[in-house]
Amino acid sequence: MKHRTLLIAAFVLSFAGPALANGGGGGGASLPSSSGPSYDPVEEYQSGVEYLRQQDYRKAERAFKRVVSVARKDANSHLLLGVAHMGQEEWRPASRALKKALRYDPNLHDARGRLAVAYTQMGKADDAQEQVDALNAAKASCAGTCAEAEAIDKALAMAGQSVDTSALPPAIEQASAASGDAAYLGAVRLINLENYAGAKIELLEARDAFGPHPDVLTYLGFANRKQGNYDIALAYYSAALDVAPGHLGAHEYLGEYFVETGNMTAAYRQLDTLNALCPFGCAELTELEKWIEQGAS
Predict the structure, then answer these.
(1) Which fold does the domain 41-166 belong to in CATH?
(2) What is the pLDDT of residues 252-293, one digit of tens each?
(3) Which of 44, 85, 195, 203 has the largest count of CB atoms under 10 Å?
(4) DSSP label at 9?
């Protein structure tokens, strides 16, 4: 498998957004069905984070609703939408956002801790305890030695309501564009070394800084797939394609995912998509052709 750097320069500045990914631009009038508001989820994510820092939860809510209107399967954005609701003591919509976060990433421990609090505030003690039990199970499995040990402990403290649930997760609070760029490049290096666990840590730092950038989401899917976390990998690939439907790397890696999981029909569909996106050929098309040839043999 060839690992290609999906983005080389400062990638937030290079992201064209979903409209361009769909082949937008050019002259002529747009049809009503395709001319609605188009949001750059990376820009809206960063605005939402800043609003949370300012404790302007209503504006943060609006920003993250725009993010998830595009990046529908991005777990982290649903988590932060939940935080915005919690800052307004809107427990039911907070619980809905946090459940979606966990649907797309069951290992997002921060969301689980906050969901326990939302359920407690709603008078759903059994549901709250279920979230605490899941965190305790993760803690026992980790035994203090896994990379997520600190996050699990913080989530348990949050579930016990000893931490402000309307505050930004510490990793996002500390993130910056510079740290995100460095983390992304570090992740690419680790992927090339086949250190997927280490790459995931770096990619999550990049995601905390930039939100649902399709390159970051694609590589998170790739790293999870290489570790056998197929459901999570699929969610990340899907999230990347929600943001950028024409993302070549996401289509290639999704096709490889389908080959690995034995769904050759779906793999061929990704190949057809790449053929349409690359009428004169591209590296992603060539690589997926090799995977399909090997998988069909």
Answers:
(1) 1.25.40
(2) 999 999 999 999 999 999 999 999 999 999 999 999 999 999
(3) 203
(4) S
Angle between helices 125-142 and 109-121 (to 10 degrees): 160
Helix, coil or strand: residue 244: coil
Residue at 243: amino acid letter: V
Residue with tokens 């919509």: 93
203-238, pLDDT tens digit by residue?
A: 999 999 999 999 999 999 999 999 999 999 999 999
Cα 291 from Cα 255, distance rounded (Å)? 8
How do the domains of the chain map onto residue ranges? Answer: 41-166
Q: CA 82 to CA 164: how far, in whole Å?
A: 13
Q: Compute the C-alpha angle 212/171/15, nearest 5°.
A: 25
**Separation CA 199–CA 10 (nearest Å):** 18
| Tokens describing residue 48 | 């939402």
Q: Is 227 left (phi over 0), alpha (psi -120 to 50) or beta?
A: alpha
The span from the CA of 28 to the CA of 289, in Å, is: 36
- The C-alpha atoms of residue 73 and residue 238 are separated, in whole angstroms, by 7
